[in-house]
Backbone:
């Protein structure tokens, strides 16, 4: 997927590619076609943000088939490629959670409690919906914890005096690790 931020407005989807092979040459050809299309309507592509796929890095960074080297002195040699900061942070946090057992446990517990809080039975009992857990959104755990704190009184009231239909769910709720 390629987005283009032409003005101060939010980026818009320009084109989505189906059947991307994942190879660097294929990526270069797709990028070239977008650069050509945009150049035809007087839009210069000066930078491209990617999501850290090896094919993207090889197309732009120190590779023998580097797009800027292969097509020097052309419109294809202009764009600067950078990795998406959100994807980079997500990958760093994923690695950190793998290395630190308490964080790994917290992440697993958060996924489970989110699943439980989003179940039809609990949503209808609580009258509120927990945000869904998403592996690739590095800020989602904060959003879920904030939602839990904002709705703590509602959740606590239901959990202290639970209706019978949620007893099975309450037995699944993990003990969260405590950090002091």
Residues:
């Amino acid at each position: 997927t390629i987005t283009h931020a032409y003005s101060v407005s939010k980026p818009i989807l320009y084109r989505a590619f189906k059947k991307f092979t994942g190879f660097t040459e294929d990526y270069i050809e797709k990028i070239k076609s977008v650069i050509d299309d945009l150049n035809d309507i007087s839009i210069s592509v000066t930078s491209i943000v990617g999501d850290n796929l090896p094919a993207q890095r090889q197309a732009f960074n120190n590779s023998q088939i580097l797009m800027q080297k292969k097509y020097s002195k052309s419109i294809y040699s202009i764009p600067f490629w950078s990795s998406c900061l959100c994807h980079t942070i997500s990958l760093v946090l994923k690695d950190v959670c793998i290395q630190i057992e308490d964080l790994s446990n917290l992440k697993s517990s958060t996924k489970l409690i989110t699943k439980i809080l989003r179940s039809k039975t609990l949503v209808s009992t609580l009258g509120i919906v927990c945000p869904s857990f998403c592996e690739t959104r590095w800020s989602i755990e904060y959003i879920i914890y904030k939602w839990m704190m904002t709705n703590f009184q509602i959740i606590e009231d239901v959990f202290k005096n639970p209706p019978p239909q949620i007893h099975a769910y309450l037995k699944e709720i993990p003990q969260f690790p405590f950090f002091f």
Q: What stands out?
A: The chain is about 50% helix and 10% strand. Residues 57 and 81 are 8 Å apart (CA to CA).
